[in-house]
Amino acid sequence: MPRRIRSLLNTLSEQVTAHVHQSEAIAGRTNLLALNATIEAARAGDAGRGFTVVAQEVKSLAGLARASSASFRDQVLTYLHQGAMIADELAKDMEGGRLTDLAQSIADTLARTLFDRSIDVRMLATDHSIAEALLVEHATPRIDARALDRLRALLGCSPYFLNAFIVNGDGEVAACAHENAAVRGVNFKEYGQFQRALGAPPEVLWMTDEVWENPWSNGRKVLVYVAPVRLEGATIGVCYLEFDFEGQTEAIMRVVNKAGALCVASIVDHKNRVVATTGSYAYHLQHPHAAAGSSLRYASSDGLNVAQASVVSAHGISGLDLRCIIEEHVATDQEIVAAVTRTTAL
């Protein structure tokens, strides 16, 4: 509604300006006629003196009409301009507040979800059965079975847990929740995430890095959480939790459907690349409306509103720096004017 009011006021300003220009043109022509009449009266001599007085009066009235028209234009245009500015601010307050609240809500929900996964992987890494399974020289089928039961129990907690497995100090998968998972044959010794987890200082209990397409999970966009498995102060392996980032963010961002069919929500990384979206953006495409910085942002242009919020956590999710961007496509000023004109014509 504020956008329609603003567009209507702008249209009125244009119409007032046009009418004033027309009035000034009429006054100008009247003034020219008065001037011509004065010249003709002068040629007529004494016989035209009375008409000279009339011509002068007409000329004076034309000047007054022009001044009055200009004054009316300036005053009305000032009021209309002020009204349009108020309507514009109202539109920004209403639309911007709603959109930024929605972006922040999605960002906060995602932040909590991501941090909760760190709790899951830490609990897994401190489970006694997991540590037992990594002590290869003491492992037995019964010990391995207990570790597998623990891994599978975690997977059952959420449909967004794709896999859970443990890797020993040599980079070999010691136990994997999915028996047929392709990752079982991978050696992680040369992988950076494994090396960082294996060499992490005691105060580091977990980590994750970036959203990526996992070839071992049919190209799903995932986050892999890792936690060092420690026994008596020594790191004996690494616990892995593969989280379906793609599926979870889709579920979280469904709330934009309630905001309207013309809203698109996206999650971008620290390089402004799209890692999840409800729209048609390709994975890792540079988002056209991403803005640097972590503060809450809102921008509006003709036909488009954009809000951005950072995915932050009081507990810290290092290495991600994700942001939620919501685009709302609205009617342009031209479309609103056209709609108002059609309604008036009816």
Sketch the major β-sheet: 5 strands, antiparallel
Indicate the low-confidence ranges by residue numbers: none
What sequence of helices (H) and strands (E) makes up the elements?
Answer: HHHHEEHEEEHHEEEEEH
Count of helical segments? Answer: 8
The termini sit apart by 20 Å
Determine the structural class based on helices, strands and strand pairing.
alpha+beta
Radius of gyration: 36 Å
Average pLDDT reading: 81
Content of β-strand: 15-25%
Gross morphology is: rod-shaped
What are the SSEs and their pairings?
Layout: H1 2-44, H2 49-125, H3 128-134, H4 141-155, E1 161-168, E2 173-176, H5 192-198, E3 212-214, E4 220-231, E5 234-243, H6 245-253, H7 256-259, E6 263-268, E7 274-277, E8 297-301, E9 304-310, E10 323-329, H8 333-345
Antiparallel strand pairs: 1-2, 1-5, 3-4, 4-5, 6-7, 6-10, 8-9, 9-10
Helix pairs in contact: 1-2, 1-8, 3-4
Walk me through what this model shows:
The chain is an alpha+beta fold and 346 residues long. The protein has 8 helices and 10 strands. The chain has a 5-stranded antiparallel beta sheet. The chain has a 5-stranded antiparallel beta sheet with strand order 7-6-10-9-8. A hairpin with a 2-residue loop joins strand 4 and strand 5. The longest helix has 77 residues, at 49-125. The radius of gyration is 36 Å and the shape is rod-shaped. The two termini are 20 Å apart. 29% of the residues are buried. The model has no long low-confidence stretch (mean pLDDT 81).
